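User: I'm curious what two different proteins look like when written out as structure tokens. Can you demonstrate?

Assistant: Sure. I'll show them one after the other, since each token string lines up with its own sequence. Here's the first protein:
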Amino acid sequence: MPDSSNTAATILISRRARQDREPAITFRAKFGRRKLWLFRFAAMTAGLLVALMIGEVAVRLAGWPAPGFYAQGAGPIELRLPGKNGGAFPPGARGELRHYDYSVECDVNRYGFRDSEITERRPGEQRIGILGDSFTVGIGVEAAERFASLFAATLREQRPNVTVWNLGAPNCGTGCETDMLEAVTKDYDLDQVVLAFYSGNDLQDNEAWLEAQSANQEHNIPRFVSGRTWLREHFRLASFLWVNGIRAWTSSEPEGVYTATSLNRYWPNTERQLERLRQIIPAGSLTILYLPARPEWDDRAWQDIRNHLQTPDVNRFLTRDALSRWAKDQGIRFVDVTPWLHACQPATRCIFSTDPHWTAAGHRLVADGLIDYWNKQN
């Protein structure tokens, strides 16, 4: 018979040997799985990067543009901060404004505005300055097609002693527009100022500008918005995806549509900037030109928003009514562009397909309405 004591000792030694080997085996197994997951992650990342590179090359070869300002074919060039520096464009530059829907020439004067150089004041000359954002700049149309240029050309024919100057800048609300006017008011020496107020984003721009001023920041565009814009401008694939789908997921609030609660949040900041502007321009020399967002003048767009968000009709003109009341209380002329644009049928004739700015047809409607109003008032 086998020795039971020897058998028991052999079994014990075998168990201890297995226990000594198990941690090493387990470690090797875990390490192997970790390497496998790292390899898979690296392979997926590399595959994604390759796909993005291929997509970027494809949209560039297809001619898909990066939106922005191009000088001598190079760009897009980052615009400067409008306000105390003057306008947003590089002073004295000549180039193009490119986007998904257009490419138009853009000549800039020494003050950073898309306009001709200021000249010495003639005897008996009356000067009108149109202050505003990208709609006043005329993003998307040639300089001569802008409502300010059409208005100027007609007045020049009727009253040769009247000149009109375009003081528009992209990404600029009432706060930075007031700073722009203060920066150039001595050189332009304006008799009348028309403030073109765009309801689509001027309220938010004023809030961002005030927050930046309070923090002594040099930039008044929220980081998310500026980062998103930089990405679209420098990577063609990003702009392609933005236009073809991603844009619809980035914002749940349609442009220019407010509730009483959201308007009450933004309005105090805008009112403060309007008061600043009012302090440097006499009431009789200031006219507010109200530029509505599309839901205000396009019935179909409003119907879609109302059905989707269950928004009551009373919310449609909240911004206009608030600004109109303020102007009336201050004795300032208020001109509503909404009826003029409402005549645009179909609405797509007056706006670009991927850009909310007006086409030449939209600018013509606004110019005709402004000319008619001005002739009746002056």
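Here's a second, unrelated protein for contrast:
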Amino acid sequence: MKVPFVDLKTQYLNIKTEIDAAIQEVLDNTAFIMGPSVKKFEEEFGALHGVKHCIGASSGTDSLHLALWALGIGSGDMVIVPVNTFIATAEAVSLCGAEPVFVDCDNFYNLDVKELRKVIESKQYAVNSKQRKGPITNNDSRITCILPVHLYGQPADMSEIINLAGEYNLKVVEDACQAHCARYQMSPQWNKDRNGIPRGKHGEWKSVGSIGDVGAFSFYPGKNLGAYGEAGAVVTNDDKLYQKMKLIHDHGASVRYHHDVAGHNYRMEGFQGAVLSVKLKYIETWTAKRQENADLYTELLKDVEEVITPEIKKGRSHSFHLYVARCRRRDELKEYLEKKGIVTGLHYPVPLHMQKAYAHLGYKKGDFPIAEGFADEILSLPMYPELGEEQIRYVAEQVGEFYKDRG
């Protein structure tokens, strides 16, 4: 049996008539950059995530950069980044001229908030930090922002992160590029407003991206909500921040050919807005199917001692962009599954501190033991809404057979 890692063609064929009509409408209107299809999508996506504002952008990486840029992150700033993530999270920091400060992950693959506090306090650079001696000068490097990632689709510990951000006067940008429709249950800390914006009530479920100062999403084709090319978005409830991001993302112009600031071209294409609007109608159904598929994987693999299946933390709704298990003899298992027609992935085999691109930061092997250990074990199994029960059972059966044959 053949089991692809994703199956974008089947998804397209299921909604082909709607997709083709939406693309044809863009062609008929020749609205290729932004335009009515993008505006429609922005309104719909913002409403789905319970935010006041949404701006369609050119990619997830650009969305992260746009958010940090609009918050004023720049040279001399330090931004907390989980070491276990795709490099785009750190790249957005580097593009601003700031320095990423890496923090290890917890057993749920997300930013470890205990380590986060240690790093902030040990650096003694956080704005308004109690540990700091003397006033902040323009020559100081300082932690000004936390950039949590909702990795693989599971929300990070946002209550603790926002609490720390408030204590140290830090900005929070949520990297929700893998977590469309993931939700987080509010804790008592949320009763406090942040920057005059209410965070919600205790027990309330909030969509990721709507909790920090701004959330960034990716619509790379393989994502839960995928465009037919590159695309992304930023969401926020902050009116002033929204206006600033809107200005920057279109060459700093509020009126055409009148540029208030030096910005960039981060505009979404009309085709992508049209495709995403069609797909948005199905995203909640697709998310539920991913969750069902994940439950079946977990049930079928529960007795395979060599495999640790993903856990969902209490008060979270996991959108399962990826189903990532920790497996003994991972590389051998991956090769074995490929021979059986099963395509798997590695997300991510090299933590950021061990990437050549960030060698200049001076980190070394052993600095982040949890992420390093996971990098040798994690294996992403096929996961998409169209994945059938028979295919999932075949994958689980072959995983079991691999370990059975090897004692």
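A detail about the second structure: Residues 127-139 have pLDDT under 50 and may be disordered.
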